[in-house]
Amino acid sequence: MKSYPETDDKNGKANRLFQNDAILRLLILIVCALIGCISLLAQNTSDATANRGQSIESMIADADSAYKSGDYEKCQKLYEAVIERNGATASLLYNLANAFYKGGNEGYARLYLERAKRLDPSNKRINSNLEYLATRINDSNKAELKGKKGDVVPDEPGFFGNMRRHIAVDTSSNAWAEMAAMAFILLILSLTLYFFATSVKFKKIGFFSAIIFVIFSVIFVIFSEMAATEFQSKDEVILTSFKATLKATPSESAKDVGVSLHRGTKLTIIDTEMDINGEIGWYRLKLNNSNIGWLPVEDVTAI
Question: Under DSSP, is residue 200 helix (H, G, I), strand (E, B) or coil?
């Protein structure tokens, strides 16, 4: 009977031991990775559970305390958690905007101020801070010109633009709806006067008053719809990356349009470009008539 060399058997055992050792090491690495993932997940879950366990009042108090102590990042996270749990209000968005501004992020500061304004258009504090911040950002964009000729300030609206802004932006849909309801009630009273008054004089007053209040009711309803449409629109964005330059075409290698814009700049969407996955990859944006170009979607955030 033929016998195999002993050295071959030793080599086979050595190979099997090496393979087993490699498999063991791989298993140890997989187990360590799983333990790390489970630990991270447990930590995030415990943080979320702790936040859920806190009352909204307690979280807001902690956020205010963090703001006063200068821990703006913690303040931001707490206010974001409150908004996620309880929904956004103008007051919460205003406080969150202040936390981002104090933390040095004018982009998200303006974003949340713009959102707060949509919820409470007549709030003087929100409008004052928004106007101040917009001026600072415009000044930063002007500084990028470095003495060159150019226009980096949004176009001033004309007469009709100002009227539309007052109707749809500076006054809430609810406010117009309340005025429409009041006009409708006065319409009912006018009709009551017309139908039940015995005097011709009062009948005339009731008749013509009813016509006036019908007109006002319709106008206020239209204004309410305009304001609601403006509130729900997503055609305005805020530049939230640190700096960005508009591109002539939707490509990173395309020619620059104008100068670099600072975060916090407000732009209007006028077109979109889809990527290979069928999702929006680029926005064609307008700052003013002189600055129209493309930016990747990750550079901006919709108001």
Answer: helix
Judgement on whether residues 224 and 241 belong to the same structural domain of the protein: no
Q: Residue 233 corresponds to which tokens in the numbers above?
A: 């629109």
Q: Which residue range(s) make up the domain with 220? A: 166-232
Amino acid (1-letter code) at residue 236: E
Q: Which two tokens mark 261?
A: 């814009």
How far the first Cα of the chain sits from its last, in Å, is 87
pLDDT digits (tens, 9 = 90+) for 54-99: 688 899 999 999 999 999 999 999 999 999 998 999 999 999 999 9
Same domain, 225 and 241: no
pTM > 0.90? no
Does residue 118 lie within any of the structural domains?
Answer: no
> How many whole angstroms separate alpha carbon 84 and alpha carbon 127?
24
How far is C-alpha 259 from the chain's CA centre? 24
Domain containing residue 280: CATH number: 2.30.30.40
β strands within the chain, DSSP E: 236-239, 243-247, 256-262, 266-274, 280-288, 291-296, 300-302
